[in-house]
From TrEMBL, chains A, B:
Designated name of the protein: PLP-dependent aminotransferase family protein
Natural source organism: Chitinophaga flava
Keyword terms of this UniProt record: Aminotransferase, DNA-binding, Pyridoxal phosphate, Transcription, Transcription regulation, Transferase
Single GO molecular function: DNA binding
Record family assignment: In the C-terminal section; belongs to the class-I pyridoxal-phosphate-dependent aminotransferase family.
SMART domains recorded: HTH_GNTR
Alphabetized Gene3D superfamilies for the sequence: Type I PLP-dependent aspartate aminotransferase-like (Major domain), Winged helix-like DNA-binding domain superfamily/Winged helix DNA-binding domain
Segments forming domain HTH gntR-type: 16-84
Pfam families: Aminotran_1_2 (PF00155), GntR (PF00392)
Signal peptide bounds: none
Length: 482, 482
């Protein structure tokens, strides 16, 4: 309830009767929007008490207001501001005057990077949603996670523990994760080499802020993961885009660049590149590592979907090879469990992690200690591994079903290379069909569309057979309608 | 399981028998830490299959390894790397060579701001933990929150919804919050004036990044909330500290500063200032707003515990008065529900919010859509209001109990002013007792200690009567022992 004694000003010296002063104050509050249409007002007894006036005075004020239709009085129920009063457009807020001290300072534009189009802010309710490669939360052990979470909030000691030193991530989670990463990726690390981030993006942002600045050069793929490019640009660094082919990023081009100018960092998504889903070949991996030592640049390895590789077993990360500490390895649980969980991690030399922790603390203090410890328990119990194994099998089937569907139904409209892993297929449209047509359809929502390459990402992991069929059928309708 | 075919290199041309090559590869992997002590190895059948060799060959390799004590074979159970092998210190990670490209680049130091000391990284298990003002999670409706959360993850459509456009916060939460803030704080805003952040700190960080930069000036209180100072310094801005007295920040000093140099922003914590817990007086609020218009600076209003004001009803935020859009209002649910929830919010003019959203997306993409919608439901149902009302009553009692305990037991060692609200008391030690002595005690952990003022924050909200008594008794022991 609002502190009405601060809203209602009464001046006993004033000749205007007190009840009129009260009524006037309330009218003013309604007019300037402090009191909104339908908002409840305190009972006359309550208000009289807080204003230090007689109850009859307040009743008189309320009567006057209701007579003027400012308020509605339902006896013995409630008193509220009338509904018919238009909710005034916020004055001081939306329509901020250009005198606003920070008005001019529009540092960051909304990007539609490398001609990609994002429709995330659409308001229409689309019938078909094609994401860019999200897991199926319906398969995830969220129950187990939340049960554990709940149990911690009722433990006396967990209460205090969970809220401290989460800027690096809880010790429990970092220890479990160090073990998990060594078993699954051969990363020979300790908990001190880990920073738990708020999603993989924060790992990229933090690394960028610490490594890059105006004048420094960072190499990225073309096309590249837009949010990573944004993070690099935000530091004022120069982005140098090198081509991506079927074997991943072109390391010879990188070498050529390094010979021309000082490169501070190279950003790679070894498997599977975003958006094109290609896997970086073994030869290029070896050469890239050699270059990083020769030219002393940091490799930011974004390995967001290592766990989902189908045809062969995955390549070990660059981070688990000889790299003289040049590799910053970034991963996430968003792809393993569910995107909105927002728990990611960074692996790096201890001295770099220390800097990251200091910066991370400034950004958002830390993560959710309870959730992190619940996740640690999920890993320790082996539940995470079981889930990933199960999900991998399922996503592989979905990839193959989508492959079959695309060949049968859309074969003559599109082309694509079946990815060896991941959660999405990079679908290229034949020249006669424009991807912009797909974007413009109100009933269809596609997360990642690339106009320059006339292509889009078809995320299959989050859709079951039936949903895949519906989506492809919908696309077929559109293409045959072109 | 590790992809062993990438770890084990077999050269059929090589004169060394294949089983020896396998054994050698595994020994190497153990030595360089890729395989850790106790790590399980695949069964001979499995490994033979993935290496494309005869099973007998693998068995020969395993026999050799176990003969050399590298591995342990428990027939029909498992094969694992021997436990007695020392877990090698991560070579490439902890001990990163100084040639590390980013080694030199230690931009951010660990702060102990204004001589404050943080012991968050202590490893000892303290018996008594005195936080700096955290809510009691045991009172919070976490159950309801998590139940709702769970229900969303099983809804087909919530799945897709929750993961999109959370960079500003879900529409559900922003709409509920706009209503809640208008009812409780008289903030006349729309959902478009809101950014949902990952805790209040992210609001401060984002505002700082957009408003400040090298050469710009920002006014803060002395002493100030350390994490806010860090966020401002990180932008390269100049911090100008003005004094805080019993009426809050000294606005005349601010005016004097504005006359000397261009001030871009003023950071205030109107009630209750951190760490000293004082409330900004009405007169100063009015004058500060006038100054912000006169000198055109932004006011960053950190109102983290508005909801907990005991003696009178709270002052309305600066943000709900006339301010020509100069006020950026920052709040958090961490204090209302639980600290690790990490959901905060920023209220600002729409055009500024748009910039914040663009930046926030780069930092960490967005928040947890499920949790945000669950919180929205909690607000809509009125549960949050009921909780805050209940908690307020409880915290007020705890403040009064602590007041009584401090007077009775520690009266002759300390001094303090009872705060009119909030979750902590700012306790000053008499000169003859040094606060550093408290910090050094292994069984005691205090979140916020200020050596310059020989004082610390005694958070009372998270402790019940019994816990308060224990804490004060413990302090009594120490003081009388001095």
């Amino acid at each position: 309830m609002l502190p009405f004694e601060h809203i209602i000003i009464i001046d006993k010296e004033n000749k205007v009767p007190v009840y009129k002063q009260i009524a006037f104050s309330i009218t003013k509050a309604i007019q300037n929007g402090t009191l909104k249409a339908g908002a409840h007002l305190p009972g006359s007894r309550e208000l009289a008490k807080s204003l230090g006036v007689h109850r009859k005075t307040v009743m008189a004020a309320y009567d006057e207001l209701s007579a003027q239709d400012w308020i509605v009085i339902i006896p013995r129920k409630y008193i509220s501001v009338a509904e018919r009063i238009p909710v005034l457009k916020p004055q001081k807020w939306s329509a901020a005057p250009s005198a606003l001290p920070y008005q001019h300072d529009f540092r960051i534009g909304f990007r539609t990077v490398d001609n990609g189009v994002e429709k995330t802010n659409t308001t229409s309710k689309p019938e078909i949603i094609i994401d860019d490669g999200c897991p199926d939360v319906r398969l995830s052990p969220i129950d187990a996670l939340l049960r554990t979470y709940r149990s911690y909030t009722s433990f006396k000691y967990a209460i205090k523990d969970a809220n401290t030193s989460t800027e690096q991530g809880t010790v429990k989670l970092r220890e479990e994760l160090a073990h998990y990463l060594s078993e699954t990726r051969g990363l020979n690390i300790a908990a001190s080499n880990l920073l738990i981030t708020h999603g993989a993006q924060m790992g990229i942002f933090v690394a960028a802020r610490l490594l890059l600045g105006p004048g420094s050069n960072v190499v990225v793929g073309k096309p590249n993961y837009p949010s990573a490019s944004s993070a690099f640009e935000e530091t004022g660094a120069q982005l140098i885009a090198v081509s991506i082919d079927e074997h991943g990023i072109d390391v010879d081009e990188i070498e050529a660049v390094c010979k021309k100018k000082k490169v501070t960092a190279v950003y790679v998504i070894p498997h599977h590149h975003y958006p094109t889903t290609v896997t970086l070949s073994a030869e290029r991996r070896v050469k890239l590592l050699k270059l990083s030592i020769q030219f002393s640049f940091a490799i930011i390895e974004d390995d967001y979907d290592y766990d989902y590789h189908y045809t062969a077993s995955p390549y070990l990360p660059l981070a688990s090879c000889e790299h003289d500490g040049n590799v910053i390895y970034i991963g996430s649980f968003s792809k393993m469990l569910e995107p909105s969980l927002r728990i990611g991690f960074m692996v790096a030399p201890e001295n770099f992690i220390m800097q990251c922790v200091a910066l991370r603390k400034i950004i958002d203090v830390g993560g959710d200690g309870y959730m992190q410890n619940a996740l640690a328990a999920l890993i320790k119990s082996g539940e995470l591994k079981r889930h990933v194994k199960k999900a991998k099998k399922c996503y592989r089937q979905r990839r193959d079903s989508l492959d079959a569907l695309l060949r049968d139904k859309l074969g003559k409209y599109i082309s694509y290379t079946l990815p060896s892993g991941g959660m999405a297929i990079w679908v290229k449209l034949n020249p006669e069909f424009s991807v912009t047509r797909l974007v413009s359809h109100p009933k269809l929502k596609i997360y990642r569309v690339d106009i320059e390459h006339n292509a889009f990402r078809f995320g299959f992991a989050s859709m079951n057979e039936k949903e895949l069929e519906q989506a492809v059928a919908f696309l077929y309708e559109m293409f045959s309608g072109f």
